[in-house]
Amino acid sequence: MSNKPVLYYAPRSPPCRAVMLTAAALSVDLDLRLVNVKAGEHMTPEFLKLNPQHTIPVLDDNGTIVTDSHVICSYLADKYAGENESLYPKDLTLRRLVDARLFYDCGHLFPRLRFIVEPIIYFGVSEVPEDRVTYMQKAYDGLEHCLATTPYLAGSELTIGDLCSVTTVSTAAAFAPIDADKYPKLTQWLERLQALPYYKEANQEGLEMLVNLVKGLLAERQQQNNS
Ligand SMILES: N[C@@H](CCC(=O)N[C@@H](CS)C(=O)NCC(=O)O)C(=O)O
After folding, report:
1. Which of 80, 101, 121 is the endpoint of a domain?
2. Which end of the chain is least crowded, N or C, by CB within 10 Å?
3. Which atom of ligand 1 is nearest to the CA of 37?
């Protein structure tokens, strides 16, 4: 008997939320297991056996262990999309564009966001340096160009490239605002993604948890510094 795929995750984490969006888009039911990174649960010997790189999310699909959100999303789409392959097209000409969007999130968008929020959560930092905000905003430019002639990042259809990027961008926007005059296409794209029926549960709720945590810590520390 096959069980639901298990997802080791935390709702605050943008990469985990990307997997939750993808699973919702595919109507795949996940068995969600919380991992508390702040408490070091990702460094236990059991977890390191699952993912020696000690990151969440990790998927255990009946013994097939998949790590990295982008790989998990492509795995889920390949395995569970059935006839509807638009989320991660099998056609190589279409797929290479989706892969480029996934790598842009992995290599550019998410690292810039983590350099904003992680020093505050884990290292007691009390401000977001202006250059990190500017650096994040510079990465919006690449997305604006991707959206020049199409509603989604890899063309006319929603793909996992959008779902992985939106969790990062929607979170980053709370710290590095998106100027709608400068990035009109990106602004419309974000609204388009926010209208997905599963967006609120799979992304918005965890996003608010992360933003409230970081803003709360910033306010607390700034108050301490002023007293
Ligand atoms: N490229 C990875 C990044 C995952 C990642 O860095 N997750 C963070 C939580 S948001 C984490 O597990 N951090 C703990 C660590 O790096 O040790 C992915 O997309 O899954």
Report:
1. 80
2. N
3. 14
The yes-or-no verdict on residue 99 having pLDDT over 60 is: yes
Q: How far is the CA of 201 from the centre of ligand 1 (A)?
A: 21
Paired tokens of 43: 């460094």
Ligand 1, residues 55, 71, 104, 171: which to mutate, most atoms within 8 A of Cβ? Answer: 55
For residues 186 and 127, give the distance between their C-alpha atoms in angstroms, rounded to a whole number: 26
Range of the structural domain that residue 42 is part of: 6-80
Q: Give the distance (Å) from ligand 1 centre to CA of residue 10.
A: 10
- Is the same domain home to 53 and 164? no
DSSP helix/strand/coil, 130: helix
How confident is residue 2, by pLDDT bands cut at 50, 70 and 90?
low
| Pocket flag, ligand 1, residue 55 (CB < 6 Å) | yes
Give the model confidence (pLDDT) of 40-65 as tens digits. 999 999 999 999 999 999 999 999 99
pLDDT at 212: 98
Q: What is the CATH number of the domain that holds 32?
A: 3.40.30.10
Ligand 1 near 132 CB (within 6 A): no
Strands 31-34 and 58-61, by their bridges, are unpaired
Catalytic residue among 2, 13, 69, 86: 13
- Assess whether 13 carries a catalytic annotation: yes
Question: Residue 42: what pLDDT?
Answer: 98
Is the pLDDT at 226 greater than 90? The verdict is: no
100 and 167 share one domain: yes
Q: How many CA atoms lie within 13 A of 115 on its CB side?
A: 13
